[in-house]
Amino acid sequence: MNNKKSKILIVTDHYFPSENAGGPLISIKNLVLNFKDKFDFSIYTRNHDVNSSETLKDIEFDKWVKYESTDVFYASHFHLVEIRKMVKNFDDIYLNSFFSPLTISFLLATVFLRKKLIIAPRGEFSPRALKLKSFKKNCYIKFFKHFLNKTNVIFQSTSPEETSNILSIFPKQNVYVAQNIPDFPEYGSLNQAGSECLKLIHHSRIVPKKNLLYFLELLNLINIQRKVEFLIYGNIEDQAYWKQCQREIEQIENPLLSVVYLGALKSSDKFECLSKSHVGVQPTLGENFGHSIFECFASNLHVVVGIDTPWQDLNSNEVGINLTLDKVSDSKKLEDYIETFEINNKNKKAYNYALKKYKTILKTSNYNELFSSVESQKTF
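^ that's the sequence the OP posted. Answer follows.
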């Protein structure tokens, strides 16, 4: 009997100790942690953080090293010949992005090797995400379809909605649903914020997709009659977009409302920081999962959530509100929500909501089937 574990090469633009790459790092870390006994994982990534030319501290690069017991290759560059030689040592290649240059490089390097390629688009096929830089994306999609009859490709989605988005572009391609596995805090780090001021918090990358500007515009439209503090954390990836946000912040005249930017939030500090607020603000244009949203719930925060996410049952569970991106209705909804929100740290509805979701994710994670799946059909 052969008990040899399949060798999986995970390819991702950034990995720990990177601090600014968002949810995919958490998904990958917890995937490896939960399934390392069944599969032999290695990780190929860049040797720097998002929007930084500085190499990661205390990391050797262009060679295989151990990071928290996992083999990781931190690359300073990537060439097709080197990639082609490397992938011959692995059974499956797990690509964390569809549009990343790294994904393109691995597709080109493996086109005739008949390796199984698993692509996790991470929400990149949501309608609103596709509208950003749409011309380039549409050209690449057409280019990619020509490779499908030469490669063994399957897709991973994390929700029925994302499956529909993938199949709308590749209607005959195999898609496996396997949910992201989030971080979950210790019970003691739950909401500890005081009651004298309603504290809102946004912790996410500052880019148009996360839609922070829209929420700031709503704050300028509503009449707040209680003391509110809005704390913004996040790596500024789009300077022009952040300048728009700053201009909107400067227009706030209500003395009861303060808005403060506090820089990027380290992964190790996130739950402690979240525990000092009451309401998470995630007005995103679309998420296949939304780690920052889940982390708010897990810290017992209610959340204001945007559209095109799996989190559409907030009102029925009394753990937040969903925006519609209609300013008239959203401003009325947000104003009512802020004015009527009751600060009660003993109420654990949001935490219990997250705990139920977390247990379901662990119970139904479909990664065994994803990595053990038979060869996908060549249907294009």
